[in-house]
Amino acid sequence: PAAPPLAAPPLAAQEKTTASGADSPARVDSNQIYGMYSGLALLMDVYHPRQPNGYGIILIPGSGWLAPTTYSAVPLKNETHQVLLFVPPLLKAGYVVFVINHRAAPRFRYPAAVEDAQRAVRFIRHNSRIYGADAARLGGVGYSSGAHLVTLLGSLDGKGDPDDPDPVNRESAKLQCLVAGGTPSDLTNPRSPMGAEYSSTFLGMPTFADDLPTTESYKKYREASPLFHVTEKSAPEMLFHGTADTLVEIDQAERLAAALQKAGVPQKLVRIPGGTHYQMFVKDGPDFLGDMVRWFDQYLRVAPPSR
Question: What is the pLDDT of residues 46-73, one digit of tens each?
């Protein structure tokens, strides 16, 4: 199934974000190739701020880990709603933003999307001087399936291979700070049938059904779950989640935040009262976009990078 897009800001907010100013890009470098897979180009768009602060953030839009298989399919990086939502406030704060495509189901299964996301981080890090971004401190933001990938990038070891003939693959794929919304953190505990179906398609496995920990199915679902990769070396994470989300219930964020806290990792959970998976803007709701920028300012620009 194709996931509906994350709801965009109200019309007034959209008009503001698309107007010229500090929250519009100085330029956009479109369709930059960050890797090749069997002749398939992995692309990203690079949004340059008007007043750079010297730091970069990778944005992975949510898609349910899915992509259409037609020639006319809109690329993941062109997911307008999420680009309009996250890119303008980051540009205004001076961050260069990298919006990526990745291989997706049903054509490609786990771990293809994870490997592509790691490749993107390595490529950006290797070419950081070109982009005006600090190689030692890269951030990430994502929503839904994009949040799943970003949180993995903040916890997986991500060490490069020093003997790889491709110098890009010698770089670390670890992020130093991240913001994630509507995050499916534990794929072994899907509450909604639709959520379970998305996970099943992503993994190429039967729908999870309380399998014994010794089964291959359980091991695969657990391996793909960010919750089980949290350590004291995980990157600081700000999570935001709607309390009325029925696709990815808020306990997924609560449990991830608790695991980070237990590990001694800086974390923050912004609850959006009445927010759903596809509509995060509610009357008198929290300023989660402002919180996002403040989180990066505090833990990406100021704090030392996580190891």
Answer: 999 999 999 999 999 999 999 999 999 9
Q: Judge whether 60 lies within some domain.
A: yes
Query: pTM of the full predicted structure?
Result: 0.92
Any idea of the CA torsion for 288, 278, 249, 158, to the nearest 10 degrees? -70
- Give the long-range contacts of residues 122-126, CB within 8 A, separation 24 or more: 122/160, 122/168, 122/169, 122/171, 122/172, 122/173, 123/34, 123/35, 123/168, 123/171, 124/34, 124/56, 124/58, 124/98, 125/171, 125/172, 126/167, 126/168, 126/171
- Whether 19 is in a domain gets the answer no
When divided into structural domains, the chain yields a total of 1
Give the DSSP per-residue string, 29-75.
Answer: EEEEEEEEETTEEEEEEEEEPSS--S-EEEEE--STTB---STTPPP
CB 250 within 8 A of CB 241: yes
| Mean pLDDT (whole number) for 32-38 | 98
The H-assigned helical ranges of the chain are: 11-18, 80-92, 112-126, 128-131, 145-155, 193-203, 216-223, 251-262, 288-299
Q: Indicate whether 80 belongs to any domain.
A: yes
Contact 222, 188 (CB under 8 A): yes
CATH assignment of the domain containing 282: 3.40.50.1820
Q: In whole angstroms, give the CA distance from residue 72 to residue 65.
A: 18
Reduced to 3 states (helix: H, G, I; strand: E, B; else coil), residue 22 is coil
Which among 266, 259, 274 is positioned nearest to 228, based on CA atoms? 259
